[in-house]
Amino acid sequence: MSCIDFHDRPKNEQCLFIQETDSCAENDGHFHYLQFPYCDLPNLIPLADVILVLWISYLFICLAITAEDFFCPALTAISKMLKLSQNVAGVTFLALGNGSPDIFSCIVALGSGSVQTTFLAFGAMFGAGLFVNTVVIGAVTLVQSNYELARRPFFRDCIFYLAASYWTWYNCYKGKINLATGIGYIVLYLAYVALVVIGRYVFQNYIKRRTLVTSVNADLIDENYAADETDDVLQDSELDDEHLLEANNLENLLREHEEENWAVVPGVKEHALTRALGVAQTLPHLNFGVAHLDHTEQPYPIHDETGMGTPLIRPEASAQSLSGRVLRRQGSSYDYPSYSMGAVKNMIRNFVRDINPIHSEDWDTFSLKDKIFDIISIPGTILFTLTIPVVDLTVPLYNWSKLLNALQMLTCPLAAVFLLPAPPTVAAVPTPVVVGIVGVLLAILVLITSTQGEAPIYYKPIYTLLGFLMSIIWIYTIANEIVSLLSAFGFIFRISSAILGLTVLSWANSVGDLVSDMAMARQGFSQMAVSACIGGPCLNMLLGVGIASTLYILRTGQDIQMKLSGSLIISSGFLMLSLCSHIVALPLMKFRVKKWYGFYLFGLYGVFMILALLNVTGVMKL
Fold first, then answer.
1. CA Rg, the chain, in Å?
2. Contacts of residue 307, Cβ cutoff 8 Å, sequence gap at least 6
3. Could you give the 3-state DSSP secondary structure of residue 103?
């Protein structure tokens, strides 16, 4: 019995039908949204529908704030501390953050052993992967067009994902997954990660060798031609074409290296590049086309005050965020003794300032739209500030605030307990009580071992990881609420489950990827966002299917049974078509993504939607 049948019941029986029908209760949200209009406000259903529309709008605002103001800084701080390139960060931390809920969902679905549930799980994987590789990449391209992708990493990611997609389609065609196949998925992902890490290491060593060789050649050129720069002397001299070619090759190598990394190898560029390419300055009539590579022109400094290499966030982007509040704390030091009344008052004053979503010094500069947005988002921003630490390596004290960060030792684990499925008790004691006691002890420990004017040594690693995990938890929770609400709207407006799953639910399952990747693109990290669009679904497919099938087969001793349907053929076919489009189109654009390609990806997804809807409605059957 379908939940949508409640419309056929008398008005006084609709609430009871919704409460007793299993399909009406299937959602991952914390609230039963379908019961709100028909059980809580049965006489004011239009008003209840309006409230639900306003609520889902606010959830989208909260999702955007969480991704841009909390998730992006945490990811940036982790990548900077580990000195990861944009591509490596995209296919690891960002992909893991976007895809971890989907991996667990896939494990649960395949672990049930039901052919129908397995079919839905694979349909969701293909559908979500297609959405991310068309709509999300298209949106990233429109947010920041004409960005450049790293050549080798991009080809590597596309080829691995294309191979994983074809292998999954072939297993659906065969109709089963055995133990060897399940382990093979895991091995393929491990090989992918190993290739990412080893490939970057080899390429960096290659860059170092080439730059050192070119530096020596530049010294020879400098000695031969520094004495006389006139055209007459040059005509009588034999300029070493091999050295000039080496300089031009170095330009291309360094450009590719900077596409894959935020900075070139520290210390190498200052010496080798300026010496090798300095020939273009001493010989002005020879155009090497490399003036833009002068290290004095770089938008990012090679070293920053933290001594951790080049900042990952551009200077103009680091101070910007969606709400403009979270990254404004600059921190300051105080001369008061740690436990004096003055220190306590200042700590409390800083705490109030840090959780205050409205800052008077910036308020007058905001437009009316920004002021309205700030006022609307006050509750969500305060809640997120209390439960998600933000470590910003580009400001003094890294955004350290003693009282707020101590309190987060209590609020973060409590929020995680209430947001995630957790056992109700631990050793016969309610779980929130146990977590609360541990949180209080940790908060006291932070207060004892730190001062307001200096961040403790454990602040950056612990709070960065905590902020990353809490932002993922909040994004996952809010996305689930949005999915539950959209499912309720589908039942309210009589949309069939087939069409609802193909459209609204497929989009909603990827809304976290869309928001987080667009947030990274707005901060100038389009390469990381595109890497996550490919690495995230690849991770979901390889680890989700691999772990789930391996565990199920080891537990039951039976292979996982599957079936290939028309909708799977369409979705998998368009997914592989989108990946082939990347492989063909990007080299033609010289790996500089143009805005038209974003519109092409939107059009590709539109054609898929038309064919898929024709298939599920029976107009066209495969």
1. 28
2. none
3. helix
Instruction: Kindly state the tokens that stand for 358.
Output: 């409205």
Q: Per-residue pLDDT tens for 78-93?
A: 888 887 766 677 666 6
DSSP 7: G
> Tell me, what DSSP letter sits at residue 208?
H
90-104 average pLDDT score = 63
- For the packed helices 464-492 and 45-65, what is the interaxial angle rounded to 10 degrees? 150
End-to-end CA distance of the chain: 26
DSSP string covering 467-487, please? Answer: HHHHHHHHHHHHHHHHHHHHH
| CB neighbour list of residue 468: distance below 8 Å, 6 or more residues apart | 71, 74, 75, 78, 93, 97
Mean pLDDT of the chain: 75
Contacts of 157 (CB under 8 A, 6+ apart): 87, 91, 531, 534, 535, 538
Distance between CA atoms of residues 12 and 475, nearest Å: 37
pLDDT in the model for residue 449: 92
DSSP 8-class letter at 561: E
Secondary structure element (H or E) that encloses residue 563, with its range: none
- Structural tokens at position 296: 């004095």
> Would you state the pLDDT for residue 459?
94
DSSP secondary structure code for residue 425 in this structure: E
Q: Residue 353 corresponds to which amino acid?
A: R
Size (the chain), residues = 622
Q: Tokens 């989208």, residue?
A: 60
pLDDT at residue 234 in the model: 37
> Residue 265: left if φ>0, alpha if ψ -120 to 50, beta else—which one?
beta
**What's the confidence (pLDDT) of residue 304?**
37
| Residue 496 Rama label (left phi>0; alpha psi -120 to 50; beta) | beta
Name every residue whose Cβ is closer than 8 Å to that of residue 248 and which is 6 or more positions away in sequence: 288, 289, 290
Residue 363 makes CB contacts below 8 A (sequence gap 6+) with 371
Q: Torsion-angle region of residue 146: left (phi > 0), alpha (psi -120 to 50) or beta?
A: left
Q: How far apart are CA 261 and CA 265, in angstroms?
A: 9
**What are the C-alpha distances in Å from 614 to residues 187, 422, 606?**
38, 42, 12
Give the tokens for residue 514: 């869309």
Is this structure's pTM higher than 0.70? Answer: no
Q: Per residue in 247-271, pLDDT tens?
A: 455 445 555 444 444 433 333 333 3
Q: By CB neighbour count within 10 A (0-12 exposed, 13-18 middle, 19+ buried), where does 64 fall?
A: buried
CA pair distance 74, 19, nearest whole angstrom? 41
The angle at the Cα of 489, spanning 499 to 420, to the nearest 5 degrees, equals 100
